[in-house]
Amino acid sequence: MSLIDREHELFLPTYKRLPIVVERAEGMYVYAADGTRYLDFLGGIAVNSVGHSHPRVIEAIETQLRRYMHVSNYFYQDAQIAFAEKLSAMTGYHKVFLTNSGTEATEGAMKLARAFGSAEGRQRIFGFTGGFHGRTYGALSIMDKPRYKDGMGPFLPETGVLPFNDVQALRDAMSHDVCAIVVEFLQGEGGVRWATQEFADAIAELREQYGFLLIGDEIQAGAGRTGDFFGFERFGIVPDIVTMAKAVGGGLPLGAILVSERLSHVWGSGQHGTTFGGNAVACAAGSAVLDLLSEGLMDHARMMGAVLLSELIGLQAEFPALVTQVRGAGAMAGMELSIPAGPLVDALLDRGIIANATSDTVIRLVPPLTFQQEHVAEVIGALRAVLADAAGN
Ligand SMILES: Cc1ncc(COP(=O)(O)O)c(C=O)c1O
């Protein structure tokens, strides 16, 4: 039986996997067991920000592995503390809680917000259409996509989903019962869609007026991906709580809830916890990632992102009937099509490029932040070819 058949036999069929059996991955490339080399513009779904198998990340992991892997959060651990110090220095946030994943960061942030709001009887938490916050019940409760939710209710009480970038709908939904809103200022799964400045301004104004907490979900767009450390930075707004995961662990499972000073003392001993969150090996990898970001990788992503976007805009001009919009920043780009994106993504794979489709009609590119001019040329050449094929059909 082939490896693929064995997988089909053993696993719940929740993933539509690419037809690739991976042998190894290095830098910008994934190598299949059959010897094929793929240029990786998916980056482990926006995880491998420093490229696959970065020597600094491997070294940090190896050093920590030899000391110990896991002792539990009963202990003080220098790897955790070093990571938290770097995160705090780079973001200005006051305190941190470390998680294993993005959805766990979302759940923790929602719990913390409710714990803070409980003194005033605030419970209601809103998310926004197109937002993606994870697969657990809190996260799903503030998401609108039926495919992720059908048949799995009921969801959390006192939650809801408002239309993204709709200032009036936000104003209409506002009351002093609102505990928090969770905003992905650059939506990833939702199709690489930015919040508008008007929407961000309205959030800031209403937060002042109503006193709710703003939770920024930076799980995908954060950790330097856009060329800023956080996607929300360009809006001049500072969330009260920020959630992170994905790239921040350098390929190991690690996430974080960052909180501003006034939320520092909401939780006491035992009010939240996790066995594995903040694992020492993951934190060592995370520290190496943060070092690389502050040593110039973020600037590189900003610069190369401008190159990528301008090339994508060039393709839009070449194929105006097919490419309706290009969005993003840094190592996060979306190309909105007038046709389903899935077949084009399959065609890209046939040409040795790994990308994916989000939001049905968007080709999403989230490469490692280490991508170079030659990789842009390769991906743009392949995109041009598959768009030309699609135009001919
Ligand atoms: C913005 C955002 N939030 C939350 C999540 C959930 O993260 P995880 O899959 O680690 O639970 C994701 C995952 O794609 C995401 O993109």
Which geometry do the CA atoms define? globular
User: How confident overall, as mean pLDDT?
Assistant: 97
CATH architecture of the largest domain: 3-Layer(aba) Sandwich
Instruction: Supply the number of helical segments.
Output: 12
CATH classification class of the largest domain? Alpha Beta
Q: Could you give a short account of the major beta sheet?
A: 7 strands, mixed
- Residue runs with pLDDT of under 50 for 5 or more positions: none
What does it look like?
There is one protein chain. This protein has 2 domains: 148 residues, Aspartate Aminotransferase, domain 1; 238 residues, Aspartate Aminotransferase, domain 2 (3-Layer(aba) Sandwich). It contains 12 helices and 17 strands. A 7-stranded mixed sheet has the order 4-12-11-10-7-5-6, with helices on both faces. A 4-stranded mixed sheet has the order 1-2-3-15. A hairpin with a 4-residue loop joins strand 2 and strand 3. Helix 10 packs across helix 12. It is globular and about 60 Å long. The chain starts with a helix and ends with a helix. The model has no long low-confidence stretch (mean pLDDT 97). The structure holds pyridoxal-5'-phosphate. The site of pyridoxal-5'-phosphate (PLP) has 14 residues, from helix 5.
